[in-house]
Structures are given as structure tokens and as C-alpha cells.
UniProtKB/TrEMBL annotation:
Name of protein: Helicase ATP-binding domain-containing protein
Domain of life: Eukaryota
GO cellular component labels: chromosome; cytoplasm
Family affiliation: Belongs to the helicase family. RecQ subfamily.
Organism: Purpureocillium lavendulum
Coiled coil: none
Length: 225
């Protein structure tokens, strides 16, 4: 009941006004940011947002972040904006904050499951956000195997699930949804172009002789002294 009351209060929030209060009077939502936020406020889910990099309550949100540097950056932004947040550590106290950052590996541990149970017993857990969700496709028995357990784990939490990425081609969606344990027909998708015009690459053919010369030069330059 408490979660539904929080969603009801969120529906009355002026999200454009709150954005400007936080980021400045001239700030506007970019791309589909506003649509995604409104879907979250309505309690819809699962949600998938695919947007290029930089494209942009008192309940708790768990944010699963696979990269340490990205997690620290997000935590720093929360502190700068005076948003109550916490980076999960396996030892020590575990405060209940508005945002809890955790790695995929830690999210499937018994210690974190117990923490989630604590949040749910207080009826304060509203949603879980999986950032860089394309890493689900990279996981295997030999590389970040615990990540493969993530989809089934967060499904058991029974809260709104939001998946964010800038790197998920339409052809890979079905496999990503399978690993994430979500039904494709129930996903609310928000996709925008992820191409970046300021980045380009080119492929140039190289003759066999030139390739051999380059390899020889590289070999000469790599020596142990």
C-alpha cells in the first residue's frame, strides 16, 4: 500500500520544475527522458531505454552498475545534488537510502538478498534499475558468471524493473530479455538513435609486404630491457 501511495504522490510532481530546480532554469529534458520518467512514475514495467551516451520520492531504488568508475560517478552526482545515496559494501552497516548502488556480483549474494528483504519488510523498495544492461549479453561461465543470475534474482523482488543501455541492437533484444527473465511483449521500450556524428572510423586495405614490415617494426619496438 505504501508503495502505491508513493507512486500516487509522484504522479502529482512537476518533473520539469524539479529538473530545473536541480540542474538550472534553462535545463530541458533530452530525447525520450521525460517519456521514460513518466512511465516510471506510472509504475509501468519492465522498461527498456536505449539511448546514446549522454542522452540522458522517499522510497528506495536499487541501481545495479557493472562498472566501478561509473558507479562512483553516479554516487558523486547524488552527493552533489544532495540525494541520499549509498554504495553497497558487503561488510559494515547497511543504511536504507533513496538510492543504493551495487554491482551485479554483489546483488546476487545472500547478504544483499537479506538487505532487499529488509527493504521489502518496510515496504520502501520501489524499483530496480540495471544500468549498462547490455553486459548481460557479455556474461558467460568464464566471464562475470554471477551476472547470469541477475535476471531471475531481481524478478523475485517483485518491483518495477528498468533497464538502461546505449548498446543494444534490436537483433540482440530477445536474448537480452531472456537473460533478464522478462517477457518481450510486456516491455515498454523507448529507443532513440545511438549514432554519434563526432565519431567515425575507416578501413584501409594494406598489402602483405606493408603488413609484414609493420609487424617487424612492432617486434623491434617491444623489447624487455
Amino acid at each position: 500500500m505504501a508503495r502505491f501511495q508513493r507512486f500516487a504522490r509522484l504522479n502529482r510532481v512537476d518533473i520539469r520544475g524539479e529538473l530545473r530546480n536541480m540542474m538550472g532554469d534553462s535545463t530541458e529534458f533530452r530525447g525520450q527522458q521525460e517519456s521514460v520518467i513518466r512511465a516510471m512514475i506510472r509504475g509501468e514495467g519492465p522498461i527498456l531505454q536505449v539511448a546514446r551516451t549522454g542522452g540522458g520520492k522517499k522510497g528506495a531504488a536499487i541501481v545495479i552498475v557493472p562498472l566501478t568508475a561509473l558507479r562512483e560517478d553516479m554516487h558523486g552526482r547524488c552527493e552533489k545534488n544532495k540525494t541520499d545515496s549509498y554504495v553497497w559494501q558487503s561488510g559494515g552497516s547497511h543504511p536504507v537510502t533513496t538510492v543504493i548502488f551495487v554491482t551485479p556480483e554483489s546483488a546476487v549474494t545472500k547478504g544483499f538478498r537479506d538487505f532487499v528483504n529488509r527493504l521489502q519488510s518496510r515496504d520502501v523498495l520501489d524499483r530496480v534499475v540495471v544500468d549498462e544492461c547490455h553486459v548481460l549479453l557479455d556474461a558467460s561461465a568464464d566471464f562475470r558468471p554471477k551476472t547470469l543470475e541477475l535476471g531471475a534474482m531481481i524478478r523475485e523482488w517483485g518491483v518495477q524493473r528498468v533497464f538502461l543501455t546505449a548498446t543494444l541492437p534490436p537483433a540482440d533484444e530477445a536474448e537480452c530479455f531472456r537473460i533478464a527473465c522478462i517477457l518481450s511483449e510486456r516491455v515498454h521500450k523507448f529507443r532513440m538513435r545511438t549514432t554519434r556524428k563526432n565519431i567515425a572510423y575507416s578501413v584501409k586495405p594494406v598489402s602483405a609486404a606493408a603488413a609484414q614490415q609493420e609487424q617487424a617494426e612492432d617486434a623491434e619496438g617491444c623489447r624487455i630491457v
